[in-house]
Design a protein that fits this description.
6-stranded antiparallel beta sheet, 20 helices, about 450 residues, two-stranded antiparallel sheet
């Protein structure tokens, strides 16, 4: 296959990104984003890359490019966040960035104004906030979204506190890691430069961990911080009433977001556009003791997704007006606990959800489940875009995986572990078992 050029390369690039873990519906705003962020040479190489983490040797073989020229190009693209390079088993491995978490975040976390920050912010704002295409496509089925809400531990009622597992505790996630970085919040930065930021929340909150922090630090997308500084960042977020949202895995998380009501795109997807599945909820949900509630409304104002409504009680205050109470809409509540942090009377707190939310064990498992939900699992299994044989297998298996009964069975408790055992066995035969540990 020869190199693509002009308009065709950007259309092919859009299709490649759409085939990743997040859907990227095509529209004029997305086309402009691609032309602004990618050169034609970068777009051409991106289209040719395998979907999964691959060594330089493998990429050289599949693309037919010399290793020296290829490494220079890949290194330039990783510095822009268009390609992710992770050091695994002593070697760097490369993969194309998805749209989220990936191209959007890394573009808007840069501080060198390359490409033009204001222009990128305006384009991303139009794509993510001016249209509903992105949210509609990415919330049809989103049980395994890339981000999950963490409950503020102080907000959980005492009798349910022992039910909080370590992977649900922000502090425990920090303690479990060995390297940390903090960078600019991409959503806040986008809102700042598009003129939509109306809060005074600081920009420097976005946290990364482990090998993902290493990627951010090496590519100057974030600065390295100590564990103490990371814990201080967490304490500041609690004081500011920010929503804690983490990488949707139990082990070796990659990132933690400190989100606000004004700027966070996933939260705006719920609050502004009405798509409740933009994030995975915590295993807790807000419940109000109506008798204790003073009706002040501070919790409703603080709620990042407008899930709390003040309801009349029929009881009159001294001024003759009805004394309202705060009721949480359990169809919207994400279980963050920001509401409870605002309640001095502890009238509203978090209690256990009746059904525990499923959290993938590892990044590998999350990517597989996300890809299955988005109809793109075939790209993870047959990841070489230059192979005609694999193209045929992607077509056949893609049609199979998209069958509703098949998709439902593979994510069920009965078949999920068996399915991952089968995948792991296949990866062992290809000497790729390392990928299951990420």
């Amino acid at each position: 296959m020869g190199h693509l050029a002009g308009k065709d390369v950007y259309y092919a690039l859009g299709r490649k990104i759409d085939g990743s873990t997040a859907k990227a519906p095509w529209n004029p705003a997305f086309h402009e984003i691609l032309k602004t962020v990618f050169s034609t040479e970068e777009a051409d190489l991106f289209v040719a890359l395998p979907y999964t983490l691959s060594t330089l040797d493998r990429i050289s073989r599949t693309t037919g490019r010399g290793k020296a020229e290829l490494k220079n190009r890949l290194d330039a693209m990783t510095s822009k966040g268009l390609v992710v390079d992770l050091r695994v088993n002593g070697a760097y491995r490369y993969m194309p960035s998805p749209l989220v978490v990936g191209i959007f975040e890394f573009t808007m976390m840069r501080t060198d104004n390359e490409p033009d920050t204001r222009k990128c912010a305006a384009l991303f704002h139009e794509y993510l906030n001016g249209h509903m295409d992105f949210w509609r496509e990415n919330t049809k089925s989103n049980a395994f979204a890339f981000i999950r809400t963490l409950a503020h531990e102080e907000a959980v009622i005492p009798e349910d506190h022992i039910e909080i597992y370590d992977y649900e505790k922000a502090g425990a996630l920090i303690e479990a890691s060995d390297r940390f970085s903090v960078g600019i919040c991409s959503c806040r930065h986008e809102k700042l430069h598009s003129g939509a930021k109306q809060c005074d929340i600081p920009l420097d909150t976005c946290s990364s961990f482990g090998i993902f922090a290493d990627f951010m630090i090496r590519n100057r997308l974030a600065k390295e911080v100590s564990k103490t500084e990371m814990l201080e960042n967490l304490a500041r977020s609690r004081e500011l009433g920010l929503v804690l949202q983490a990488d949707n895995v139990k082990n070796r998380i990659g990132f933690m977001c400190h989100c606000d009501k004004c700027c966070c795109n996933p939260l705006l997807g719920i609050r502004k556009f009405g798509f409740p599945n933009t994030v995975v909820t915590s295993n807790f949900i807000a419940r109000t003791d109506a008798a204790r509630c003073s009706g002040c409304g501070r919790c409703a104002t603080a709620c990042p997704v407008d899930a709390i409504h003040m309801k009349p009680t029929g009881q009159l205050k001294k001024n003759g007006k009805d004394k309202p109470w705060a009721e949480a809409d359990h169809g919207i509540c994400i279980g963050c606990g920001v509401c409870a942090l605002q309640c001095r009377l502890k009238a509203i707190q978090l209690e256990k959800r009746r059904q525990r939310v499923l959290t993938p064990e590892t990044t590998f498992e999350r990517i597989i489940l996300q890809s299955l939900e988005k109809g793109n699992l075939q790209n993870q299994i047959f990841d070489n875009p230059r192979s005609n044989t694999q193209a045929f297998m992607r077509m056949v298996t893609g049609a199979f995986f998209r069958l509703p009964p098949v998709k439902k069975a593979l994510v069920s408790d009965t078949f999920r572990s068996r399915f991952f055992s089968f995948l792991t066995t296949g990866l062992k035969l290809q000497d790729k078992e390392w990928i299951t540990k990420i």
